[in-house]
Structure formats: structure tokens, C-alpha cells
Amino acid sequence: MKRIYLTFDDGPDEHFTPRILDILAEWRAKATFFVCGKKGEKFPQILRRMVEEGHSIGNHTYSHSRFLVYCGILGKEIERTEEIIYKITGYRPNLFRPPWGVVMPWVKKKIWKRGYKLVLWDIDTRDWKKLAGEEIARKVKGEARDGAIVLLHDGDDVRRLEEKSNTLKALKILLPELVSHSYEFSALS
After folding, report:
1. Domains in the chain, please, with CATH?
2. 9 catalytic, yes or no?
């Protein structure tokens, strides 16, 4: 059996994340959700559901601020999100993914000191670029390999409704296709 790791950034979103969780449950697939603290505060029931259903949660900063990322001033954002996740779920995350994959050397040092593992990705679906669900699925199938980490999004930017619908379509195509090729979907730990 080959493993592939689906990861979702920028959520949770009250409309799309539950639908993603439903699709994952249908296929008994596990995933990792890199959540933004301010969205976790807003939708605590979704964070609890993630944990109850066996998914893992990673830290994706509190506000997903481009300014703070490029300045490397993320210490308080990481700590605040860690506390939010812990208070809601009783689960203290040890995975960190920086927004846009941008991580300054001093941020790396800080997260390692806090016991975090830095997680990036092997397959960027570019689901945020208004790609069709079929195109997203084709990209993942074409690059799938044992141990690959796939980047998807479940954030709540209203301008991205079409893109998130395409992410849902892609999942409905991908999961059965990859299962038929002996893949199982695991959460990162």
C-alpha cells in the first residue's frame, strides 16, 4: 500500500471544510489541516470534528498576514494559534506550515525551538488559480508517488468560491482514482 498525504491550508471555512470532511469520511481518508488561528476561533466545532474524525491539525499562523510572513515576525502568531487549537481540541499541534511556504531563517529557528516540524509540500495543486476540478485531479494523479504531500486549500475568501468548488470536484475524482491505484490517505503526525 502506498501513502499520500492530503493537506488543506487557510481554513477552516464554515461552508467548505465540512464538505471536505464529508468526502474524506466517505473514502475513510485522513488528512492534515493547517489552520489559521482566527478562523479556528470562529469555527471551533469544525476543529473538534477534524480531531474526532482522526485528522491532524497543523499551525498556519493566526492571521495569514503577508506583511508578518515576509518580515518574519510570526512568533506571537504561532503561539496564539497553538493556544487556540489546544483550548478547542485538547490537541497541541507540532506541525507548522508557513503561509505561501515562505519561512525566514529566524522563523525556522523559532519553530524548531518550540518543537514544531516544518511541513511544505511535494505537489502544489494550484487549486487557488481557478483551475477546473478535473485539471487539479489530473495534476495530482500525474505527480502522485508514495509519501507525497499534496497542497490544497479550504480557506474562506469569498472571491474563491469557484476555486473551492473545484477543489471539492477534484477530491471526488482523486480519492477513488488513487484508491484504485493502491494509495491510502494518511494524516501527517
Report:
1. 2-185 (3.20.20.370)
2. yes
